[in-house]
Amino acid sequence: MSTSPQILVSENRLSKSSKYANMLNKVPQITVVFWLIKMMSTTVGETAADFMIFNFKLGLPITSLIMTALFLIVLVIQLKTKDYIPWKYWLTVVFVSILGTLITDNMTDNLGIPLAYSTIGFSVLLAVVFAIWYAREKTLSIHHIDTFPRELFYWVAILATCALGTAAGDWFAEGLSIGYQNSTFIFASGLALIAVGFYVLKLNSVLCFWLAYILTRPLGAALGDWLSQPVKNGGIELGATSISIVFLLMIAGLVGYETYKKNYQVNNH
User: Fold this and answer.
1) How confident is residue 24, by pLDDT bands cut at 50, 70 and 90?
2) pLDDT higher than 80, residue 205
3) pTM of this prediction?
4) Could you tell me the residue ranges of all domains in the chain?
5) pLDDT at residue 113 above 90?
6) How far is CA 143 from CA 22, 30, 82, 206, 248, in A?
7) What DSSP letter does each residue of 78-147 carry, written as one string?
8) Is the dihedral of CA 256, 70, 171, 209 positive or negative?
């Protein structure tokens, strides 16, 4: 049975339209690689901030100013792209993770705000960001980060999750005296429950994504401290420098894989 020319033309246009829409989406597909890079990026956010503060002896205020300036630079680079470019996207994630850590550290160390209050405050802030985002765009889906306002909401939300995750991770480990190791297991268990909710109970995908995204931050913070902190503080004393270097190399390798995969897909379609 033959297919009419009109149907072929319509299908061809639909295919091109779908492909174009995918090309405009500026965030990666949600895969195992995505979550691995995301978790390691949050860990680097914790350890890299400590590395600059203590190893370079820059102090918290100067480190914060430097990281804020660098974050704004890489954010502008990311915002100017018209497509998902792996190295630009993940470089922004690394810097927003570092900045989120520094924001919470400044509130705790310089302003004396308890970690419990910071955790609650950033939770409220994140809820407000999501409310405004949804009221304007009618969606919180990360499959449609294809306009400038949506991308701005996206990065503001991520910055809030990073600050929230740092506060929650430190609050659990230090404020509640649960310890870095136990906190790591608690947040990892939370992620496992979200996975069960998504894959088994078929819960809303957008809700599960953002809950998982929020939890990966305190998981990364607790994991980073557990690996890098001295034994007397509840860590295994691998050092912030070693952890930062190892995780950055692993991130670079996975981002390289993402770049290769993206280029392969583009060249073969």
Assistant:
1) low
2) yes
3) 0.84
4) 44-263
5) yes
6) 8, 9, 15, 9, 26
7) HHH-SS--HHHHHHHHHHHHHHHHHHHHHHHHTS---HHHHHHHHHHHHHHHHHHHHHHHS---GGG--S
8) negative
Both tokens of 266, joined, read: 């583009």
**Residue 136 to residues 139, 153, 158, Cα–Cα distance (Å):** 8, 10, 18
Torsion of the alpha carbons at 267, 260, 262 and 72, rounded to the nearest 10: -130
C-alpha–C-alpha distance, residues 143 and 234, integer Å:
40
Q: What is the DSSP letter of 142?
A: G
Instruction: Give the number of other CB atoms < 10 A from CB of residue 42.
Output: 32
d(CA 127, CA 142): 16
Question: Residues 94-110: what's their mean pLDDT?
Answer: 93
The crossing angle, in degrees rounded to 10, of helices 86-109 and 148-170 is 50
Q: What is the DSSP letter of 24?
A: H
Confidence band, pLDDT 50/70/90 cuts, at residue 185: very high
Tokens of 35: 């979550």
Task: State the DSSP code for 32.
Answer: H
Tokens of 187: 């947040």
